[in-house]
Specification:
The chain has helices spanning 6-12, 45-59, 62-69, 89-111, 137-140, 162-173, 192-205, 215-227, 231-239, 256-271, 292-298, 311-324, 331-339, 345-362, 368-378, 383-386, 390-400, 405-408, 415-429, 436-442, 448-462, 466-481; strands at residues 15-17, 22-25, 30-33, 73-78, 81-86, 117-122, 182-185, 210-214, 243-247, 275-280, 302-305. A hairpin with a 4-residue loop joins strand 2 (22-25) and strand 3 (30-33). Among the domains are: 41-135, 2-Layer Sandwich (GMP Synthetase, Chain A, domain 3); 162-305, 3-Layer(aba) Sandwich (Rossmann fold); 384-481, Chromosomal Replication Initiator Protein Dnaa, Chain: A (Orthogonal Bundle), CATH 1.10.1750.10. The longest helix has 23 residues, at 89-111. By secondary structure, the protein is of the alpha/beta class. It binds adenosine-5'-triphosphate. Adenosine-5'-triphosphate is lined by residues 62, 150, 154-156, 161, 186, 188-194, 281, 317, 345-346, 349. Residues 62, 150, 154-156, 161, 186, 188-194, 281, 317, 345-346, 349 line the site of adenosine-5'-triphosphate.
């Protein structure tokens, strides 16, 4: 790797060079074609493993990836032998038993080496090497390390997450005394894990016994404990904590025995005034297959939602991330990125990382134009989409709503036309070519704020309105075909 390329790794954390001219940002699971840059694959075990993690992240469910892979490191790579550092023998055993072949295939693909021999080394145990497979799964399970980046200081508060943040802070500062349980729900990538880990870090810094696990990890620990006849140990482990944080609790729904075990754990902790914090992708009443007795308990304390961030919050997050990365980004670029239609904060951070990567690789300053090109390029959209004119896009939307284009960009305010107009703004925005102000001008001289509001509204509505989803798919299909 050349000296000029090194800062990218430092800045982006998980941005790596892959063969075939692809630049990969594991946060976003997308590929950026950079035709002019020479790319190399590093022999360094740490970098190689990070690249492999990016690939693995694509092929596994989020809870699965988070439970078993976060915290692992590439320790050594030599002649087809790869040593992976893991937090404890429980993780080593799980990876060895269930993921070995996938990991091997991934590493073989990345290195081009025909064979790969894996060793899992438990970190902190010098004799570590491979797991024995005999000792107790429960006693070996350590509390998951917290990501130091996920603390309250780095969490940006806005309208979408104010209540969740305040409740989380209160649970961290006065565990068991305010909202118990605290149930935080929201779509993927909106900060649930961040808040849970922030709570865990505060409480554990104060010397409390904290346990943070995902719903998936809770389930597999429980199943292993049963198999190994260590149910008592499992019970003790979970019921002896001051603060229990379970991420993605929806994972236990429909697993009768795990639900039963969690029911008793919950009751015991709650009765003894211990704090419980849960996160899920939906509110308790919307988690399908969850036992009623758990559902009602989850609603005993405070149920709070994290919603999609508004533009102001998006801007604040971008500023913070740019600062963290040591990058000076001009306000017009930040405004442009904040105005982008995104599904979640992970995607927002992803966009920023893409722009930074693009600018470094092309050695060009970060301007709104470069940002636009970077996002367009990385999205890998077909050339045809780039030639779409605003007029063509507006015509297509108007056609789908069976109104004429003049009405679409005119002053009519009936519900149908207003809705079609908002969809038009959303469709224009999702082309990633024009700024909010430019789009505002295209749809009858409307303000950037109106466009932003429309895009946010449609993004939110798409989450629960299948008719709208179908309509937009139809419009996008027509645009592609034409
Ligand atoms: N309010 C915020 N301020 C700063 N960063 C945030 C905020 N909300 C989320 N993030 C960042 O967004 C990314 C995704 O957040 P996180 O992993 O907590 O989402 P999640 O809701 O747990 O998603 P999932 O359900 O997919 O696991 C993280 O990098 C996190 O730090």
């Amino acid at each position: 790797m050349s000296r000029a390329e090194k800062p990218i790794l430092k800045t982006l954390g998980r941005a790596f060079f892959l063969p075939e001219g692809y630049y990969f940002l594991s946060n976003h699971l997308e590929k950026l074609r950079l035709p002019t840059e020479e790319t190399t694959i590093s022999n360094d075990a740490g970098q190689l493993w990070e690249t492999a993690l990016g690939e693995l992240e694509c092929s596994l469910s989020r809870p699965n990836f988070r439970t078993w892979y976060i915290g692992t490191t590439g320790l050594n790579y030599d002649n087809g032998r790869f040593v992976i550092g893991v937090a404890n023998t429980f993780v080593a055993e799980y990876l060895e038993r269930n993921q070995r072949s996938l990991i091997e295939k991934t590493l073989i693909k990345l290195t081009g080496c025909p064979n790969m021999e894996l060793t899992f080394q438990v970190l902190g145990n010098p004799r570590g090497a491979r797991s024995s497979g005999k000792a107790s799964a429960v006693t070996r399970t350590a509390t998951r390390c917290f990501n130091p980046r996920y603390d309250f200081d780095s969490f940006i508060v806005g309208n979408s997450n104010r209540l969740a943040h305040a409740a989380a802070l209160s649970a961290a500062q006065q565990p068991g005394r305010s909202y118990n349980p605290l149930f935080i729900h929201g779509q993927s990538g909106l900060g649930k894990t961040h808040l849970l880990q922030a709570i865990g870090q505060v409480a554990s810094n104060e010397g409390r016994n904290v346990r943070y696990v995902s719903g998936e990890q809770f389930t597999s620990e429980f199943v292993s404990a049963l198999k190994e006849r260590r149910a008592d140990e499992f019970r003790e482990l979970y019921r002896g904590v001051d603060l229990l944080l379970i991420d993605d609790i929806q994972f236990i729904a429909g697993k009768a025995q795990t639900e039963e075990s969690f029911f008793h754990t919950f009751n015991e902790l709650h009765n003894s005034g211990k704090q419980i914090v849960l996160s899920a992708d939906s509110p308790p009443r919307a988690i399908s297959q969850l036992e009623d007795r758990l559902r009602s308990r989850f609603e005993w304390g405070l149920t709070t939602e994290i919603a999609s961030p508004d533009e102001k919050t998006r801007l604040a997050i971008l500023k913070a991330r740019a600062e963290e990365a040591g990058e000076e980004i001009t306000p017009d670029v930040l405004d442009y990125l904040a105005s982008e239609v995104i599904r979640n904060i992970r995607e927002l951070e992803g966009n920023l990382n893409r722009v930074l990567a693009y600018s470094r690789l092309l050695r060009s300053a970060v301007t709104p134009d470069l940002a636009r090109r970077a996002l367009k390029n990385i999205a890998g959209e077909p050339e045809a989409a780039q030639t779409d004119t605003p007029a063509h896009l507006l015509d297509t939307v108007a056609e789908c709503y069976e109104i004429n284009t003049e009405a679409l960009v005119g002053r009519r305010r009936d519900k149908e036309t207003a809705n079609a107009r908002q969809v038009a703004m959303y469709v224009l925005k999702s082309q990633n070519i024009w700024s909010l102000s430019e789009i505002g001008r295209m749809v009858g001289d409307r303000s950037a704020a109106t466009v932003s509001h429309a895009c946010d509204k449609i993004t939110r509505e798409l989450e629960f309105n299948p008719l709208l989803k179908r309509k937009i798919n139809d419009i996008e299909g027509r645009i592609r075909r034409e």
